[in-house]
Write a structure and sequence with these properties.
Layout lengths: L4 H5 L8 H22 L1 H4 L5 E3 L3 H20 L5 E2 L8 E2 L7 H6 L1 H7 L1 H28 L3 H12 L2 H6 L11 H11 L6 H38 L5 H35 L29 H4 L19 H17 L2 H21 L3 E4 L2 E6 L1 H5 L17 H18 L5 H15 L9 E3 L5 H4 L12 E4 L9 H11 L13 E3 L6 E3 L5 H12 L7 H13 L2 E7 L11 H12 L3 E3 L2 E5 L4
Helix pairs in contact: 2-7, 2-8, 4-6, 4-7, 4-20, 6-7, 7-8, 7-10, 8-17, 10-11, 11-12, 11-15, 14-17, 14-18, 15-17, 21-23
Length: about 600
């Protein structure tokens, strides 16, 4: 593995005392946990009644995935395809983010404390584990100084991208996978490690595919680019030739093990029912603004002081937002390291620089955008966007690769300054001030949270079972989609509390039906859900005719709906919902409702 300047040039020097290293490790663990709890502190007051303000829809989705995954484990059901949502077609979770490994590992906790609290536990552990995994890689393999490892690891664990994705993304906050994958790849070069290392890496690849397939894809691309640039450097060619046979054998074992474990998920992903190509998101919208690299994120000390910007497509995608001081510091770190490095380590620096630049440019998307204004300048991603797999990636997330490169430069620099400090105290002070000016504004602030509507007693008390046959279909109003996720929250509660199964039409998932054969969020709309969406969103009751009544009843029978339910308060993830307009619209379509517990209920007459 590429080493730091100190390890590369002075391998015989002694390490710090074991006791001091252990004390540093303990401090790092406490710091990582404290920051994780600080970032998620808004939900710890009561996970069951609070939601992440800017992304409560994704939170509801991941809570549902945890409940469904545990249910699939205890009931022997397929964890990658379900008919509980999107009746009658079902949903292909292999082309969605299924987090099956998380759902199975944490199933006992989900049954014990419920999906919302389990979601919070995983989110908090993700953040802490990401920083600690990077610390392990740095301190054990790349740098000598524990302080250097801590600086780099804490930046990578709580950089703006990680904090923004902490807005309910259990997949992207699982950054602890990346340093493990990196170490697993480099361990393959050791002679005699092909089988053991290949098996371990193959299992890790399968786990990463389950938790964050897109992140695994980006990590593979970044490693391939880094290794390609690193291997062609003249100073590394002899080392590459010596390690290549062992590396290729280990890579073959990795491919075999991962291929066996992922054979069915990959078939389902590329050839199974309800598959699609591309994504349901516009790459022009979900691309990084060039100016965002020099801006500050909203959930940071600088953002709290009013210096944040809104250049990201949404608050969960602040994938760069390093700020100009950090960019300048990264350049200064590179220059210092380059000047003091031997030829071998310069190959590592060169590979890191090329990787950062390539992924930064790719993150800008199909065409360039500066400070919110789109230009007509075609960029490399615009050419690559038509390639399979690449067309399913959001270009702005490619900026996630840049943060670890900056973190490595920070760690290498602190390590170099610790082992060979500047001769002048003024120079040492300048470096300290530079690090402070670059990193202090990026200190994270807690995620925004708000109170969410409680699950109705109609669900929690199990009253729904009196109105829906076992495995029958129930739908809330409006129908369940990303902006109105109540149905999946109700279903998650029923599954986690072992009440039994009810199915719902629609749902928050990616499926076919988008333009040009691409994916879309939820199924294509029908008459009944379009009317309900219009009423709930605008507060206006649409004009109801005999034709719309007939079409709406046909839609409900197509979905096999037995009961239509409207709670007193509906959770709108992006806007407020008008419950009165929904009730009047449903009454015009289905007749007067009956009051059951704390909901209005309409029974759908059979054909």
């Amino acid at each position: 593995m590429p080493t730091s300047p100190s390890l590369a040039t002075d391998p015989s020097s002694g390490s710090a005392p074991v006791a001091r290293d252990r004390r540093a490790d303990l401090i790092m663990v406490l710091a990582a946990l404290a920051l994780a709890i600080w970032v998620t502190s808004g939900m710890w007051r009561d996970p069951n009644t609070r939601a992440i303000t800017v992304n409560s829809s994704d939170q509801a989705l991941f809570e549902w995935l945890l409940a469904f995954g545990g249910h699939s484990l205890t009931h022997g059901e397929n964890p990658l395809f379900t008919h509980l949502i999107n009746v009658p077609d079902g949903a292909n979770l292999a082309v969605n983010t299924s987090i099956t490994v998380y759902a199975w590992v944490f199933a006992p906790l989900t049954y014990l404390i419920g999906p919302p609290a389990t979601f919070l536990v995983i989110l908090t552990l993700n953040l802490a584990a990401t920083a600690l995994a990077w610390y392990w890689l740095l301190s054990r393999h790349l740098v000598r100084s524990r302080l250097a490892a801590a600086v780099g690891a804490l930046f990578m664990g709580y950089c703006p991208a990680m904090v923004s994705h902490a807005n309910a993304h259990l997949n992207w906050t699982a950054g602890w996978l990346v340093p493990l994958l990196i170490q697993g790849v480099f361990a393959l070069r050791r002679p005699g490690n092909a089988i053991r290392g290949g098996v371990l890496l193959g299992v890790l690849v399968a786990v990463a595919f389950s938790i964050a397939a897109e992140g695994l894809f980006f990590t593979a691309l970044a490693l391939a680019l880094f290794l390609g640039v690193w291997a062609v450097q003249p100073s590394r060619r002899a080392e590459v030739r010596a390690a290549l046979p062992s590396f290729l054998r280990g890579l073959g074992v990795t491919a075999l093990v991962a291929g066996v474990l992922l054979a069915y998920p990959l078939w389902l992903h590329f050839a199974g029912p309800q598959r699609f190509h591309g994504t349901g998101f516009d790459p022009f919208i979900h691309s990084e603004d060039i100016a965002a690299y020099g801006s500050y994120p909203r959930r940071s000390l600088a953002g709290w002081a009013g210096l944040g910007s809104s250049l990201a497509p949404n608050p969960t995608e602040e994938n760069s937002f390093f700020g100009i001081p950090l960019l300048l510091l990264a350049v200064a770190c590179f220059v210092l390291l380059w000047r003091r490095a031997d030829r071998a380590f310069r190959a590592t620096l060169w590979a890191l620089a090329v990787t950062a630049v390539v992924f930064a440019v790719l993150s800008w998307g199909p065409t360039a955008k500066w400070n919110g204004r789109r230009t007509d300048q075609l960029l490399p991603f615009g050419v690559l966007d038509n390639l399979p797999v690449v067309n399913a990636a959001l270009p702005s997330r490619l900026a996630l690769v840049v943060a670890p490169v900056i973190g490595l430069l920070l760690a290498y620099t602190v390590d170099r300054l610790r082992t060979a400090p500047p001769r002048h105290r003024s120079t040492e002070l300048a470096w300290a001030l530079g690090f402070a000016a670059a990193l202090l504004p990026l200190l994270p602030t807690p995620l925004l949270t708000s109170v969410r509507e409680p699950i109705p007693a109609f669900i929690t008390a199990g009253t729904w079972k009196q109105h829906v046959s076992p495995g029958g279909v129930l739908t809330p109003l409006p129908l369940t989609v990303d902006v109105t996720p109540d149905g999946q929250r109700w279903q998650a509660y029923a599954l986690a509390h072992r009440q039994g199964e009810f199915r719902i039409p629609a749902g928050f998932f990616l499926g076919p039906g988008g333009p040009d054969g691409r994916g879309r969020i939820g199924p294509p709309p029908r008459t009944f859900d379009s009317l309900m969406d219009q009423a709930g969103r605008t507060g206006l009751v649409p004009i109801i005719t005999d034709g719309t009544i007939k079409e709406s009843l046909a839609d409900l029978r197509y979905w096999h709906v037995e009961a239509v339910v409207l709670p007193d308060r509906v959770h709108g993830a992006k806007y407020d919902i008008d419950e009165d307009a929904l009730r009047r619209t449903a009454t015009d379509l289905l007749g007067p409702p009956q009051r059951v517990d704390d909901v209005w209920l309409w029974k759908v007459p059979p054909v």
